[in-house]
Each structure stands twice: as C-alpha cells, then as structure tokens.
Specification:
This protein has 304 residues and is an alpha/beta fold. The chain is built from ten helices and 17 strands.
C-alpha cells in the first residue's frame, strides 16, 4: 500500500503566513504539521512508501524539509508542476497526476497535509481490510454552524455512505468527511474516469487540438460519444482504437469548471453512486488547518 499526502495547495486563507511558505510545514507544538501525519503513517506496517505531492513554488522548501527528516519509511516528493493558486490542479487533479506519474498499481491511502487528529490509522486500516471498496474518514464536529464549511455525510447500515453534501447551507447533521481516503487499487481508475466524465470531456477535447501524449483526430470534429476507458484506466485512441495513456488532470479547464469538479467532496458524492463507499468515524480531536482560527486553536492544543 502507498500513502499520498496532499500538500500542493496555496492556502490563501492563511496569508500572509503561507504566501511564501507551505501550510503543511507550518509549526504546531514545535513541529511541522506534516510531521505528525508522517508519524502516523510510519506506524503502519502495510505502507511501503509515503508520497508527498506539492507544487513547483514550494518544492524546494519540501526538499529541505525532507533532507532533515528521519523516517523508517521511504518518502518521495512529487512536483505537480503548478506555480500559483490560479493554475492549481486541485486535490482530485493531484491524485490523478501522482497516480500517472508514479504509475501506481497499489492500494492508496490519501490524507490532507493540513489534517491533525488523534485517531489511530491502524483502526482505519483494520476497517478497510478485506473490503474491495473505497472508504473515507469521518468526524463528528458537534457544531452545526461549523458543519457548513465541510462535506456533511450520512452513514447507513454497515457504515455505508448513503448521502454526501459538500458545504451545505442547511446541514442535517454534524458528521463530516475528513480529508482521509482509502482507494483499493482496482478503483484507482475511477479518478481518471471522473475527471474525464461526459460533462467535461467534450468541451475539453473540442477546445484543444493537441493532447499529450497522442493526437486525437483533427479538430473541430465534434465528439459523438465519450472516449472508451480500459480496465487499466487508459483511453482508446480514436484513430487506432488501441489503448494509450492519457495524462489529463483538469489543469487546462477553466477556474469555474476546475473548482466544481476537483473538490474531493464532489468526487466522493459521484463515487458513491458508482460503487459502495464506507465511512469510519474517528474519535478524539481533529483539526483541519484551513484558516487562522483553527491554526491558532491547534497551536494552543499542542502547546499544553
């Protein structure tokens, strides 16, 4: 199993702290936020590699951090090749980028690089073991007003996810989704399928003539149907009908399209309608370091 830490965001809500410094490397209790995540992942026997995806702007700072970090796990860094908030790939785009870049064919545990929590990941892995379907981490925030800022979920029998609302105006519960996901290797291809969904593939392919790494027949011939996807997640070349890798991650879409499709909540809601998705509820504390308020609360918690 591989672990992926999402650390490619630009954290504009934490400016000026994060204007020239990545949020996961901000210190809480004299240690960078990401170090607490590394500790939890390093304790998992199933994990054989920890991948940290960041952006070109902060890649040098993560290289410096990595050079001073001691861990028994192999830790690799991936640059998602973006340089600013305006051209960011988004969480789903970064997942797809890393899966292609690293040619991942293993089960994948994904965690946000700004999540601090006391729950045990060993219990989460015990929950997902033997289950061929995706799972997410959940937390009862116990504040209906705060729930508006997150993805609000509902779990049914055997903790199956039966409803997901991304940042609802009127949340019906305080059970929210953490930025913690488990995707079995057989389901990784669904990330690419989601990004290349019928609602976004047609305008994208009609807009661009050259698509790396292969040419799709001369434009502007309109597509009459969506491209076929093989079991390995490759797309069939329209001209030859042979499978070719396709490294599209959403970065070329408009800001409006990217914001709608690349938020993890929208993907999980789409995914649960394709395959069963399950939720594991964590106890203890959890901080999503999204703004100054939660960052200050976390610092106070860890300074005791």
């Amino acid at each position: 199993m591989k672990a992926l830490i999402l650390a490619a965001g630009y954290a504009t809500r934490l400016y000026p702290l994060t204007k020239e410094y990545p949020k996961p490397l901000l210190k809480v209790g004299k240690r960078p936020i990401i170090n607490y995540i590394i500790d939890k992942l390093a304790a998992l026997d199933d994990i054989d590699e920890i991948i940290v995806v960041t952006n070109s702007k902060f890649f040098p700072k993560f290289k410096k951090w990595r050079s001073h970090l001691q861990s028994k796990k192999h830790i690799s860094l991936v640059d998602d090749l973006t340089k600013s908030h305006s051209d960011r790939r988004g969480a789903i785009g970064d997942m797809s980028f890393v899966i292609d870049k690293k040619r991942l064919k293993d089960d994948l545990l994904i965690i946000g690089g700004d999540n601090l929590f006391s729950g045990d990941l060993k219990e989460f892995l015990s929950f997902v073991k033997g289950n061929p379907n995706p799972a997410i981490g959940a937390y009862n925030i116990k504040d209906i007003r705060q729930a508006k800022k997150y993805g609000v979920i509902k779990l049914g029998a055997k903790f199956k996810l039966i409803d997901f609302k991304e940042k609802p105006e009127n949340p019906k519960s305080t059970l929210i989704a953490m930025c913690l996901y488990y995707f079995p290797k057989e389901k990784l291809r669904l990330i690419k399928e989601y990004l290349m969904g019928r609602e976004s593939i047609r305008p994208f392919l009609n807009r661009f003539r050259k698509v790396y790494p292969f040419w799709i027949r001369p434009f502007p011939i309109p597509l009459r149907k969506s491209p076929k996807v093989t079991a390995e997640g490759n797309f069939l070349d329209i001209k030859t009908d042979k499978p070719r890798p396709f490294y599209y991650t959403g970065s070329l879409r408009s800001k409006k399209e990217r914001g709608k499709h690349d938020a993890t909540g929208f993907y999980i809601d789409w995914l649960r309608k394709k395959v069963p998705v399950y939720g594991f509820v964590f106890d203890g504390f959890w901080y999503d370091i999204g703004d100054h308020k939660f960052y200050n609360e976390a610092k106070q918690k860890f300074s005791r």
